[in-house]
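Subject: Protein record for review, amino acid sequence with C-alpha cells
Why sent: The fold of this protein is of interest and is recorded here as C-alpha cells.
Enclosed: The protein record, placed directly beneath this head.
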Amino acid sequence: MPTYGERRRVPGLRREELALLAGVSPSYYARLEQGHSLNASPEVLDAIARALRLDESERLHLHDLTRSAKPRGRGRRPAPERVSEAAGQLLDALADVPAIVIGRRSDVLAWNRLGHALFAGHLDPGAPGLAARRPNMARLVFLDPHVRELYTHWPAKAGAVVGNLRLVAGRCPEDSALHALVGELSAKSEEFAAMWADHRVRACDVADYEMRHPLVGTLTVTQQTLSHGPGPGIVVATTEAGSPSRTALALLAQATAQTTAPAVPSRAKARAGTG
C-alpha cells in the first residue's frame, strides 16, 4: 500500500486503508466500527480479519462479537455445567495421566487423583467449603501463590488463561457468573486487569509448560484440552516418553497412590452443580 512518505502520528492502518484492504467503503467500515451497522455478512467479516491479519481464534472471536452485538430477546440463564457419563468414563480411563474436567469459566468440575496432585495438590479435598465451591483455575492461577509458583514462566500461563476467558466472553456475553469472575479478578489482581484490558484472545488448546512441583521438582508437560462442542473439556497433561519429566510424573503417581479417592468435586457432585 503506498504511503507517499508521509509521517504518521501513530502506528498501524488508518480507517480508510483498512477499508481499502477489506474491499468495503470507508463510510461503511466506519459504521461497522461504531456499531451502527449490525448486519455485516460473514464474508465482510472475514475480509476485515484478513486485512488485520487475525489468526483463526481472533477471526472466530470477531464473528462472536458481531453476533453478540445484535439485538436479541430476553437472555436465558446458561444451562448448568455437568460432567457427562462419557467424560466421566474417560476421566477414569486416564488414571495414569493428570486430567481435570473444566467448564467454560475454568471451573474444575471433576479431576482424577493425578490431576489433583499436579494442578492443586495443596488443596485439601476435605477442607470446609471446598465441596460447596468448585476450584476455579483462573482464580487459582492469579490469586493462589502455590499455583503461581507451579509455573516457571507464569506470564505465559496467565496470558493463556485470560485469552481463553476473552474468547468465552465473546461466545457467552450474557453469562453473569463469567462477568462476576472477571470483575473479581480485575479487582484483586492488577496483572489480570492489565491483561484483560489488552483485549487479546487466545485458544489455549495445546501448550507446553515447565512446572516446578514441590514433591517431584521440575517437569515439562504438554497441556491439551479435549473437547467436543461448547460443553466442558478435559484438560490432560502429558510428558515425553523416556524423559525426566515422565519419570517425575511417575514419582508423583507413587507419592499420591496412598491418598484417598479423587479430590472434591467428585463426578456425582459435579452432575448436580449449578451453571
